[in-house]
Amino acid sequence: PTGNELPPRGYDPGEDTFQPPPENRASVSVAVSPTSDRLQLLKPFAPWDGKTPEDLPILIKVKGKCTTDHISAGGPWLKYRGHLENISQNCLIGAINSENDEANKVKNQVTGEFGAVPQTAAYYRDHGIKWVVIGDHNYGEGSSREHAALEPRFLGGLAIIVRSFARIHETNLKKQGMLALTFVDAADYERIKPSDKVSILGLESFAPGKNLTLLVKHEDGSKEEIALAHSFNEGQIAWFKAGSALNLMAAKAKKN
């Protein structure tokens, strides 16, 4: 076949519709209807309070494969990509709960009732309780889905503790100010029960290459310590302390 590799009369230059932002942006606001179920303005996540996280409930101990689609389902949910509160109603609804081998059915450790994962997470958040997820190997495998990290953060999660991470999801969690941690000994996953309460020790000296410690309190009152590794560098630790990478960027921009 033959033909023109390039248009013989060149390309249509089109219309220049770019409007540069005003020099003074303080008065600029983005108008989003408060009744919209498709768009919602984002609010900054709270920075780390500097305290040792103690006696946190386990939202779910995930059994087996947990991809970004298990964490943030696609399909009809994608219409809510601009509305974090609405799309967060799909958070971890596909993950299998090790306690009962069911999806989207976890025990609320305060009320004792079983319910959906997002609603249970929101209950903890609204009662000022941070929570953690325990996961298996290659947690977060799949497309680089930002919402799979945004949703657990929005619902009040503090840490995702797993046997191993899919690399991109691990970084996405860090960017949202969440602790992405792995068991030094992958077999320690088996030592944790969904009814346990956990504390994360060592954050006051959080540093690259320095392990943290998970203090596990079992329902019978017994305790044990489990070593946790991480891959945070200095910049990523700053994201955690600031509450997210965006928070840190905003703080630096204000200084300039």
Automatic annotation (TrEMBL):
User: What would be an example GO MF term here?
Assistant: 4 iron, 4 sulfur cluster binding
Under the cellular component aspect of Gene Ontology, which terms does the record hold? Answer: cytosol; mitochondrion
Q: Which InterPro entries match?
A: Aconitase/3IPM_dehydase_swvl (IPR015928), Aconitase/IPM_isomerase (IPR050926), AconitaseA/IPMdHydase_ssu_swvl (IPR000573)
Q: Where are the bilayer-spanning segments?
A: none
Which region ranges are annotated with the description Disordered? 1-33
**Pfam families documented for this protein:** Aconitase_C
What are the Aconitase A/isopropylmalate dehydratase small subunit swivel domain coordinates in residue numbering? 57-184
Provide the GO biological process annotations: tricarboxylic acid cycle
Q: What is this protein called?
A: Aconitate hydratase, mitochondrial
**What organism does this protein naturally occur in?**
Dentipellis fragilis
